[in-house]
Amino acid sequence: MARLDVTCNALARASDNLERAVARAAGLPDGVGEAFAVEAAPASRAVVEAMRALERLQALMVTGDADTVFPELPVDPGRVLLVGDTHADLTWWQEVGLPTARRVGASVILQVGDFGVWSRDQGRVLDGLEGPLAEEGRLLLYVEGNHEDFGYLLSVPVDEDGVRRLRPHIWHLPRGFRWVWSGQTFLACGGAGSPDLGGRVRGVDWWPQEAITPDDAERCVTGGACDVLVSHDGPVQVDPEVGYRGSWSAADRAWCAASRAQLQRVVEGTRPRLMIHGHYHEHHLVEAASTAYPARRFTVLGLNHAGGDHGSMAVLEPSLLSSGEAAALTIL
Ligand SMILES: [Fe+2]
Fold first, then answer.
1. Terminal CA-CA length for the chain
2. For 73-331, which CATH superfamily applies?
């Protein structure tokens, strides 16, 4: 196991160096760097793939013995701790997130994207969380945001239950995944456009798969109505520039708007009573009107980012949703 750790770390460093070299070369003049980048790209991808295979093997060695108990999604989770963008902040999880889950007695933590698992982190966040989650029998579920390593995330297969089990107690819920808690239908539709796209490098810290596609939206809508929509981006009823005002380029705004338009198809097509999202790093709890049928109202909970002043977490009790969203939600 120790030798595997050393190999993983060495490969991760090689991968990072190669990725940086390719990114730098792509920016050189006279087309020389560009040609190098094109030639080096397959090697870079091969290194990244090898590293991911090792990571999966490493995870299997940690969790894959015959006695490991893989939890199931509870039918009635009791209390669910909702968490805003965490951006790979393991210290926040250890000092705030996990203690809060213990304090409020949440059996499940539901995180709304920009969770931030990066292949270069060598499972630091996943392994740092899996231990205490397993010890306390708690599940951590999340939808993807835009600031995620989609190269890594999408390399993990969706299992027969429709989720990506990154660790036994840490699951990613893909776009279109549905589940029922206390008789209430939940729908996952993560993803969003990056407003800081212009400052990022494709394949290094940005991937086009962050955007919700027409196929994603179609898949969500085809499943029919839901009670609770869990997303990363917010509906158009929320000010799209909150938290980023003045910093978006025209191209980045257009990219973000295209993904958000697909999310809006999902909002209108699945008619949730409650929508829970992050992304804008601001807390709000508002009643919104459908853009297609203004008489139809729904509740929008926007979560602040981890470490934000207020509203980065909330407790949801799905069994109380039948009495109204206000009864089921406690903002922390
Ligand atoms: Fe985001």
1. 41
2. Metallo-dependent phosphatases (3.60.21.10)
